[in-house]
Automatic annotation (TrEMBL):
<dbReference type="InterPro" id="IPR001128">
    <property type="entry name" value="Cyt_P450"/>
</dbReference>
<keyword id="KW-0560">Oxidoreductase</keyword>
<protein>
    <submittedName>
        <fullName>Cytochrome P450 CYP72A219-like isoform X2</fullName>
    </submittedName>
</protein>
<dbReference type="InterPro" id="IPR050665">
    <property type="entry name" value="Cytochrome_P450_Monooxygen"/>
</dbReference>
<keyword id="KW-0349">Heme</keyword>
<keyword id="KW-0479">Metal-binding</keyword>
<dbReference type="GO" id="GO:0016020">
    <property type="term" value="C:membrane"/>
</dbReference>
<dbReference type="Pfam" id="PF00067">
    <property type="entry name" value="p450"/>
</dbReference>
<dbReference type="InterPro" id="IPR036396">
    <property type="entry name" value="Cyt_P450_sf"/>
</dbReference>
<keyword id="KW-1133">Transmembrane helix</keyword>
<feature type="binding site" description="axial binding residue">
    <location>
        <position position="406"/>
    </location>
    <ligand>
        <name>heme</name>
    </ligand>
</feature>
<dbReference type="GO" id="GO:0004497">
    <property type="term" value="F:monooxygenase activity"/>
</dbReference>
<dbReference type="InterPro" id="IPR017972">
    <property type="entry name" value="Cyt_P450_CS"/>
</dbReference>
<keyword id="KW-0408">Iron</keyword>
<comment type="similarity">
    <text>Belongs to the cytochrome P450 family.</text>
</comment>
<keyword id="KW-0812">Transmembrane</keyword>
<dbReference type="GO" id="GO:0020037">
    <property type="term" value="F:heme binding"/>
</dbReference>
């Protein structure tokens, strides 16, 4: 572990020129291990044996057999943030997935598109006030974080938007404290102010969410709920239906479980999409020809009209750009699994307890799969679909794959397309001289020193 930390610190201490070849900076130890020992490499994580796997067919098998290759148990810190469907296994996962699925059906998502539009309009109106006629430098990263936070607050909690926003702000503070504690090199024996604040936030968030849920449940039971098109309303109705159909509460979620799913909405719906939008703007600021192509498509499909669901689905170039950004700058760099029961994987015999590390970003940057232009931004590779881009290999799954594929992938893509299309309608943008290209991973892959761009009104 000491070698991992040393290599990581050395890589991050060196500035890099603007390049999409970011693996040496963000994953130096894993990259060196795979170069030295191959695409199936054994390492130790402290006392725990682990396998690094970059073989596409083995990864397909791992992700398709979620009963054998399970997610590692959450740490005490991540439990404070949220548990929910991401951390559950077996029957409990299946029950939650069945109930939550209703909230992410496409017919439900169509009703959320106006919220994406409203939140993007609010962000653009802020830019309108600070961007001069000649163009102005703006760090777009915090604005895009606020945009996606507002969007998930509105789509998750509807009329309780303000309480939802407060809850998400507390969750963000908690995530920062947990990161600080995790990175700390000293061993603490007594509770400190960080511990006390983490527990305080946990209780505040629980109280806020419980208040929102109780208010909504009372309205549903009284037949007074006027708007159940938000995620919480759909979730509660689906949960109630499961309980009533089976006449047994065990078929539904408990109140504590509903609270955990609401907390999870923040990280699933905010962190990844804001990172995707930020990298999309950074990359397009360096590739003006693709920015122009995307804008031409947006204006052809939308003109200056309000985008709607059907229009968003016509954006082929914008979709190709998002797919290529997800290849070069995936929000999650690595996926982890744990062998639940002794099994065979290819020609390997694996005992239970072995950790499996799937460095997805390295798979997306593998020249054998993607070709010689692997380090270049080339959305054209996706013009005939993912299968053609990967030469038929299982080598691209930004929203995971198999039974545990991300339930919110359509939500995220609709939100990202709406925001990017509206930005392109109203602004052209170039990279600012003050921008430093320093990708780093916190919960997601982020620009460490911000995303300073020069915005020009159109």
């Amino acid at each position: 572990m000491k070698e991992v930390v040393m290599m990581d610190e050395e890589a991050k201490s060196k500035p890099i020129k603007f390049s999409h070849d970011i693996v040496p900076r963000i994953m130096p130890f894993i990259q060196k291990t795979i170069i030295d020992y191959g695409k199936k490499s054994f390492i130790w994580l402290g006392p725990t044996p682990a396998l690094l796997i970059m073989d596409p067919e083995l990864i397909r098998e791992i992700l398709s057999k979620s009963n054998i290759f399970q997610k590692p148990p959450p740490t005490a810190q991540t439990k404070l943030l949220a548990e929910g469907i991401l951390s559950y296994e077996a029957d409990k996962w299946a029950k939650h997935r069945r109930i939550i699925n209703h909230a992410f059906h496409l017919d439900k998502l169509k009703h959320m598109v106006p919220s994406f539009h409203l939140c993007t309009c609010e962000m653009l109106s802020k830019w309108e006030k600070i961007v001069s006629a000649e163009g102005s430098e703006v760090d777009v990263w915090p604005y895009l974080q606020s945009l996606t936070s507002d969007a998930i607050s509105r789509t998750a909690f509807g009329n309780s938007y303000e309480e939802g926003r407060k809850m998400f702000e507390l969750q963000q503070e908690l995530a920062k404290i947990i990161l600080k504690v995790t990175e700390s090199s000293y061993i603490k024996f007594l509770p400190n102010k960080e511990d006390r604040r983490m527990k305080q936030i946990y209780q505040e968030v629980r109280s806020l969410v419980l208040g929102i849920i109780n208010k909504r449940m009372n309205a549903i039971e009284a037949g007074e709920a006027s708007n159940n098109d938000d995620l919480l309303g759909i979730l509660l109705e689906s949960n109630l239906k499961e309980i009533q159909e089976h006449r047994n509460k065990k078929f539904g979620m408990s109140m504590d479980e509903v609270i955990e799913e609401c907390k999870l909405f923040y990280f699933a719906g905010q962190e990844t999409t804001s990172a995707l939008l930020t990298w999309s703007m950074i990359v397009l600021s360096k590739h003006s020809e693709w920015q122009a192509r995307a804008r031409e498509e947006v204006l052809q499909v939308f003109g200056n009209n309000k985008p709607d669901y059907d229009m968003l689905n016509q954006l082929k170039v914008v979709t190709m750009i998002i797919q290529e950004v997800l290849r070069l700058y995936p929000p999650l760099l690595l996926m982890g699994r744990e062998v639940h029961t002794e099994t065979k994987l290819g020609n390997l015999s694996l005992p239970s307890g072995v950790q499996l590390l799937l460095p997805t970003i390295m798979l997306y940057h593998d020249q054998e799969i993607w070709g010689e232009d692997i380090k270049e931004f080339n959305p054209e590779r996706f013009s005939e679909g993912v299968n053609k881009a990967t030469k038929g290999k299982f080598a691209y799954f930004p929203f995971s794959w198999g039974p545990r594929i991300c339930i919110g992938q359509n939500f995220a893509m609709l939100e990202a397309k709406m925001a990017l299309a509206m930005i392109l309608q109203h602004y052209a943008f170039d990279v600012s001289p003050s921008y430093a290209h320093v990708p780093y991973s916190v919960l997601t892959l982020q620009p460490q020193h911000g995303a300073q761009l020069i915005l020009h009104k159109l």
